[in-house]
Amino acid sequence: MGETANVNKGQRGTLFPVKKDNGETLYYFSDFSEDLGSGGAGDVYKGYLCHIKVPKSVSIPTAINKDELIIDEHAPVAIKLYKNGQTPSSHRQLNGSVLVHKDGRVILIREFIDGFQIQPDIEDNPQIKELTFFQAVDIAWQLVISLNELHYNNTKGRSIVHGDVKGSNVIIRIVNLVKLAHQANDAPQLKIDVFYLDDDFSKPILRSRQTSQGTPEHLALEVLDGLYSEESDFYALGPLLFSLFGAKNPFKEIFEFRKSHPTMKPEDLVRHYIEIGFCAEGLFEHFASKPDDLILNLVKNFLKQIVAKDKHQRPSPDAILEFFTALRQWCLACQDKEAVANYRLRLIIAANDASWLKDEEQQKLFLALDKNIQTRLINLMTVKVRSQCLKICEHHDSQNNYLVHHIVKTSLQDLAHESQLREPSFLKSFFKHSVTPKELKWLLSCFEHQDYEEFFSQQKANLRKALLQCSQSEIKALVSVIVPGLENIRLLAQTQEEQII
């Protein structure tokens, strides 16, 4: 508990004046009897909008008796009292919140959200145990979207991470809606919303190292080195997703290890936590009705990917959004067989499951997808999978030139980008037979500009030879598409010249 709470708890509390831009002053009161949570940065209490019975000027937080005020119990707020030296993140502040100061301490007043948080043990989560599979999917989808909004729609300008995603920093609000007369009696009438709280550890997304902060059992390995990214936020979200889908306690083995090693340094504890991993015991068991094993296995394996030790083994933010969007749509389209098949394929591809590449019907389904969906899915694929997609296009004699072009272009772009990020030792082993990043960028330029003259020029004979002799399967597949295409353009140009002559 905070110092102020110990002093003021009871009928006497603190009046917090907040001056609005129009000059009007609003007053909030708390007697610190309703504790909403505590953390390393400060303590949070419930407060209320109020009015002073006998008007008087109050310009700073002031101790006051509760009976001097008219308390509006229908207008609650959350009041966070920061510990000395602690302040909200300078990179982001919750919308609709205000800051005041008292005795050198920062006080944050924000909207009070009535809902429940995600506890580690499912027995402490009665609301979660009552969720249907679709409702759990809907909450997971909202958590993903809300985290993406934190990452990319920061009003301060630069992209940021939350930095401390955990169960106590998430609120889930479920509201029962009034049914209309024309709606079926058994139709679900619930409105579910999710909110992220306490972004005190928010940081800009940078490639350079920053101060390592957060809750140990939620920290990704790279965060120990001060490297924050979208992936580190989603790693922290991972155990909450396990809980939503019914895991009995994702932290069971982690907490047991912590209890048996009370003197271990925090950074060493985190390394052990990551090696132990999150416990999936009980996953899906509480759902009265659930999907087939194929869908459940996809979800289980995808959750494990999100919390992979190696950042590069985790799905991208786009893949996570695609997966939970497709899963939600799959749940809603249960009566439409064609739509269900489409969403299932999107799930499989987003989860980086290669099984569809050997399934003739799913190959045809992919080739028949809307162009925008194809584009999105191709962007999620590895270069290796894309090269197999080229073979699928050839096998089915696909005339979709856009699809082939996008596969080739994105693959070359990714290979060229990868070459800039990897160490020279990696490049030496990866680009066998003299193929270098320089050749890849040159091939990409020729392909994008359809520059057959540059590609077939005598001056570039060595570059061309290196690419044609490359045995690396992904590059070989791209070259086998690009070279014939450029050759056809050259022959067409020559034919047109002969006709003119």
Can you put this structure into words, describing what you see?
By secondary structure, this protein is of the alpha+beta class. It folds into three domains: 12-112, Phosphorylase Kinase, domain 1; 117-314, Orthogonal Bundle (Transferase(Phosphotransferase), domain 1), CATH 1.10.510.10; 397-424 and 433-500, no CATH class. The protein has 18 helices and twelve strands. It has helices spanning 3-8, 126-129, 133-152, 230-244, 252-260, 266-276, 293-306, 317-332, 337-350, 360-367, 371-380, 383-395, 401-421, 424-430, 437-449, 452-455, 461-468, 473-500; strands spanning 12-19, 25-30, 35-38, 42-52, 62-65, 69-82, 98-102, 105-111, 160-161, 170-176, 190-196, 203-204. The strands form three sheets. Strands 1, 2, 3, 4, 5, 6, 7 and 8 form an eight-stranded antiparallel sheet that branches. A two-stranded antiparallel sheet has the order 9-12. Strands 10-11 form a two-stranded antiparallel sheet. A hairpin with a 2-residue loop joins strand 7 and strand 8. Helix 4 crosses helix 7 (293-306) and helix 11 (371-380) runs parallel beside helix 13 (401-421). The radius of gyration is 29 Å and the shape is elongated. The termini are far apart. Keywords: Kinase, Serine/threonine-protein kinase, Transferase. This is Serine/threonine protein kinase. It comes from Legionella brunensis. Residues 30-327 form the Protein kinase domain. One of its GO terms (cellular component) is cytoplasm.
